[in-house]
Each structure stands twice: as structure tokens, then as C-alpha cells.
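User: Show me an example of a complex going from sequences to C-alpha cells.

Assistant: Sure. Here are the input components:
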Amino acid sequence: MSARHTHRWRGVVAVTLVAVAAGVLAARPDVLLVGVVGAAYAAYPHLWSAPTPAFDVERTLSPADPAPGETVEVTVTVTNASGDHHPDVRFVDGVPPMLSVSSGSPRHASALRPGESATFSYAVTAERGTYGFEPVTVVARDVSGAREVEGEASAETTLSVVADAAESPSWSPTDERVGRSLADRGGDGIEFHSVRDYRPDDPLSRVDWRRYARSRTLSTVEYRPERASSVVFCVDARPCAYRAREPGEQHAVAHAVAAADRLLASLAGTPAAVGAAALGAETARIEPGRGRAHATRVRRLLATDGAFSAYPPAASSVDLEARVRRLRAGLNGETHVVWLTPLADRDAVEAALALRRDGHAVTVVSPDVTASGSRGARLAAARRDEHVRTLREGDVPVVDWNPDEPVERAVARASGRWAR
Amino acid sequence: MTRPRVPRRGLAAASILAGALAVHLVAAAPWRTVPLGLATLGGLALAFGLGRWHRDQRTIGGLAALVGALALAGGLALPLAHLAVPGRAAEVVLGVAGVACLALGVGPAHRGWEREFLAAGAGLVLLTVVLSGVLHDAGRTALLLGAVACVLAWDVGEQAVNLGEQVGNEASARRAAVVHPAATLGVGLVAVALARGVASLGVSGLSLPVLLALLAGGLLTAFALSH
């Protein structure tokens, strides 16, 4: 909690001085008396001590379990839990940064006696994902408004908007294809499966040349594709990843978390185990697991854990190499790592290459938050292009994702290229 | 919400009304009602128009602001017909200018300059009050209430600005918007009663050294309070 002076009564001293001076000079006692009014207002703000806000918050969502696209009514009830009167108190609800308010206002101002409550409500549009509400910001002023104290009051509320795989109208064949392409990227496969007739677009490396030498007929060897048993979404949450195209727009970490959430949903129809990790100033990690309950746990971690926070950490830099080393130690060989990073620096590239050297399938999904315009912005874009090139040369597929389009579409387009 | 945070409408209107009321209470000219009425309506229209303008309703906003500005200009021009008594005309001109500044502040005419305009407006209204006390005997109660209305014009206007900044116009804020101005008005009325009490003690009969000593004491008290 921090108190600050608003200085809004500063000018009232001038009322006193002007009135007194004019009254004395013109010898008008009535004008002199106006100085009393000024003096009373000058003393007024000093009669109050700084308020000490203490509020209980209750937040309800209706409906509590909305479908994507549905409007959710958020009702916030704040109760004055301090023993003091609060003649002027303002509230700003902590709407999850990824949700947009569709009607009403998440703000409210009131005057509350001890124990009294105020209720306000607004509506947000539910989008697929799990979102944690942030604490309500409370700004309390004394009755004169001379001093204001800012604090927080929290109520844990989570909005889960989970599309039911088969029934939801927003479930598209693309989702399924994307999920499969992520789950299936395990390597070329080495287990022999079958031999079939050659088709013109088969790669030459798969042609059974020995049989051709024997019988002069072209045939193609098929291998059973190796399936990744698990997919881990790693979000680059280092301070340098908190960059946006323009101030006020969403930054790359918010995009990455949203993308991880959507890709996670696309895996619902596959047998792959899913996990997630944040590599930033703070780290968070959830080991791969199967089943709907586990998927919900992963999504909740993405939505609520501080390591995936929408606010940049205080730390200035993070030793990514050490973080990746720790991650690598805990992964088994068949895990497909989806590395979500804006590719802001060379370290992000090295991390992907190190994982690839360990034999993991690695896919980089990179939200493009570089802007055009200034020279600095163009330089950043050029450097990112170079990082993408380096990764592709290192046999790491990169999904160059423009956050204006759904990430599923970007992955589907890219996986069309990977398909063998 | 990406809507611009402009001052709260209700409090903005109250600020303009308080400023006009202060001038009306103290000005001596019997014809003051017409220019002040024009200024009040003009100020309200100007503030309303500017608010709409910031909400990107450029046609209605521009139109209302234009009508308001014309009415204010009328309020400024009318006293010119009464230049025979320059003091009385000056009071009304100063007062109308003050109301115009208040309206420009709570509109606002320029975002980020709300408080500067408000301070200028309240300052002009204060000058009107003091001037009328010096030029003619406006009456003790009228002067005191005029001063209270002048402080109220600033206080309510500033409250409109800071509530607008912190919660915006869409949020419900009725109680906060009523309790604060009511308290300021209450303090003012108490101060008026106090001043009248002091006056009834017959301080005007005191000698100048005694009066100055009292003044010095009062100023020292004010100084001690503000530190």
C-alpha cells in the first residue's frame, strides 16, 4: 500500500492570501472575512489521516462454464472490511489481460461504511483458454481527497473456457490435423513397415533400389512413423521476450501463452501426453501427462502461474542456458519440444539447437512481434530472419507466426511443408 | 476499455453551475442574469460538446461546442452595452470568463490541461468575488457564499477530472460523486457560520495593530497546519 498526496487543496491558500490582502488594502472587513473561508478550506484536508483500505472481494461468473464466444457476466462484490468509513473509494477489477470487456465497465467508485458492500458488474467475451483474474486495485481517498492510498484486494477466480473436442462448433478439422502433426513429429522412423508400388511423388531415398536392380520395377519402402509419446510446450518468458510490435499491444509472451493453450487444445484428440514449462526469470513446469484432467491442469498453470505472467519480471536478464540444461535433464528422448519464442536473441536459437542435438524433435513457434518503420525495428526484424534461417539449417522447423492469424493455421501451413 | 477518460459529466456540470452561482451572488449589476445565464448554458453546451468530441462523435460534439462557444461570446459581449458603470461590467466579464475557463477545463478543451483551465476559471471567479467586495458592498453573506461556491467550482471540477481518470464515465460512481462535494459544501457552510460569528463579535471596531496581530496569528496557524 502506498499513500500519496494529491495536492488538490494547494491553491486554496491563495484564496486566503488574496482575500486578506484585498480586505486590508481596501479596508473592507467583509472581504477580510472571506479569508476565514479560505483558511477553513486550508485546514480541512489536515483533519483527516490517510485512509487504510481493507476490502474483501467476491467475484462470480455467470455462466461459470461458458462456451467459446459466449458472453460472461462478471459480478464483483467488495465489502469494507476495515473499521473505517471510506467516503471515496475506487475499484478497478483485474480483468485477465487476454480477455476483452464487451459491455459495462470493470471500474467502480463508491462511499462505504464499515461492513457495507458495493456490487458492480460487466461482461467479457469468453475465448478458449483458462484465465486467472488479477486482484482488484483499490484506491481510497479521505473525504477531502487530499490523500489517496492504493492497495489490492484479491479473490482467486479462474475462467475456464474449454471447448469439448467433438461437439464444440469452434472445433475444426484443422485442429485435429494440427494436433496430429505435433503429436507425430517424432523423427523419420526406422521401423520397417511395408513395400508398395512406387508413386511419382515418393522421395528417391525411399525407393527400394535393390529390388529395382533385380526386377526393374520401382517400389517404395515404407517405415512406421515414430510417434512422439509426449509434447512439452516451452514458453520463452525472459524479460527480452516481453516485447510488442507497438506499445499497448500484446507482447510475445502473451502470444506464446495463448498459442500454447490453443495448441494444447488441438492435442486433445491424440494420445500424446502433454506438459508445459516456462523459461524465464521464474520457472514453472508441469511434467507430461495424459487425460483431460491433466490437460486442464496444464492450462490452468499457463493461465495462472506467475512464470507465465503478462507482466514483465523485474529481473533484467536470465541465464537461458542453465534453464535449458535443467529442462533437458528432465526430458526423455521421445519428447517433442515446442519452443515458443519471439527469437529475440541468439540464446533462443542455441536453446533449440541444444535440444535438437539431444535427439529431441523440436519445433519453434515464433510469434512475429517485430515492427517495420524505424531503423531499430528493421534491424530487429532482420536479426530475427537470420535466427529463423539458422534454425532451419540446423534441422529445426520454424513456424513463423503472425499473431494476427490463428496459430493453428500457421502450424497447419508449416506442417504441410514438413509432411513426408 | 479504450474509451478516453474524460471528466465525469455530472460533476463537470456542477462545477460550471457553482462558478456561475458564485458570480451571480456577488455581482451588483441588475442585468447580470442574462449574460450569466447565457454563460452557464454556453459553458454546459461547450463541455458537453468537447466530451462528445473526445468520444469521436465529431459532428454532434463540434456542433454543441460551437453553440456553447457562441453563447459564451454573447455572455462576454453583453456587458459592453453597460459600460456606463465600468466596475459592474468588469465583474460580469470576469465572471463569464471564469465560467468559460471552467467549461474548457471539464470539457476538456485539451487533455492533460484540465486542472490548469479549472484553476484559471476558479481564479477568475475568486477575483470577481474579491472585486465586488472591494468595489461595492456586495453583502457579507453573499461574499462568503460566493467564496464557498468558488472553492466548490474548483473542488467539484477537479473531482470530475480525477474520477474520470480513474474510473471513467461508464462506471457507476454515484455515491463517490455525491459524498465528496457534499462534504466540501458542508465545510464551506460551517466556515460561513464561523465568519459571521467572528464578524458579530465586532472585530471591525478593533485598532489596526490588534487586527494585524490577529492576522499574523492566523497566518502562523495556517503555516503550522500545512507543515
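The lines above are the inputs; the final block is the predicted structure for all two components together. Chain B has one domain: 9-225.
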